[in-house]
Design brief:
alpha/beta; 7 helices; Uracil-DNA Glycosylase, subunit E; single chain; globular; 6-stranded mixed beta sheet
């Protein structure tokens, strides 16, 4: 796969009509929110890329930073800090001074979808931006997929076959080119409230990635 610079979505990305309409409605309802494709967070020299599903309506869609302002960010950022992959105090704001270390965060779909459910067509339409994200990370060694949709989209972006690398929480997949793909259930409120994902389970995945990165 080429590591040449790729595309990034513009503030008014027109690719997905349903997401455009939802964005425009949100801009009317909440004119002071970000309400645009959410850019990735972290440095381009990071060795770890974390891939979520899509921005939350009142989280990243509001603040303009992945996982910032919603419950999933509370668990994600606390865990990254615990394992030395972030520093500072997470204040649920893009201006809180919280900083990632050797880590970058993005989403499989950059715009907030209605009911947090992107369609297969929208996931495919946004994949070129995921490919572009990977191409801008020259030191990339490991990827953490949060949920099965992020897992599948990442494999397709890398030209890997999903049938050979099924999603399973805690799984580690050795990919072409020496990349390592790790799987975790998404750190959403639903998954943690139902016990599908516990703090200990999530920390075990992040901790193993931290150990492998050294």
């Amino acid at each position: 796969m080429s590591r040449s610079p790729g595309r990034v979505p513009g503030h008014d990305c027109p690719v997905c009509p349903r997401l455009v309409a939802f964005r425009q409605a949100n801009r009317v309802a909440e004119p002071h929110w970000h309400n645009a494709p959410v850019p990735s967070f972290g440095r381009h020299d990071a060795r770890l890329l974390i891939v979520g599903l899509a921005p939350g309506l009142k989280g990243a869609n509001r603040t303009g930073r992945p996982f910032t302002g919603d419950y999933a960010g509370d668990l994600l950022y606390a865990t990254l800090k615990k394992f030395g992959l972030a520093e500072g105090e997470y204040g649920k704001s893009p201006n809180d001074g919280f900083r990632l270390i050797d880590c970058r965060i993005t989403n499989a779909v950059r715009c907030v979808p209605p009911e947090n459910k992107p369609t297969p067509a929208e996931i495919s339409a946004c994949r070129p931006f995921l490919v572009g994200e990977i191409s801008r990370l020259p030191r990339l060694k490991a990827i953490l997929a949060l949920g099965s949709i992020a897992h599948a989209s990442m494999l397709k972006a890398l030209g890997e076959r999903l049938s050979q690398r099924p999603f399973k929480h805690g799984s580690l997949h050795a990919l072409k080119g020496g990349l390592l793909l790790a799987d975790s259930y998404h750190c959403s409120r639903y998954n943690t409230n139902t016990g599908r994902l516990t703090t200990e389970m999530f920390e075990a995945v992040i901790g193993e990635l931290r150990r492998r990165l050294g």
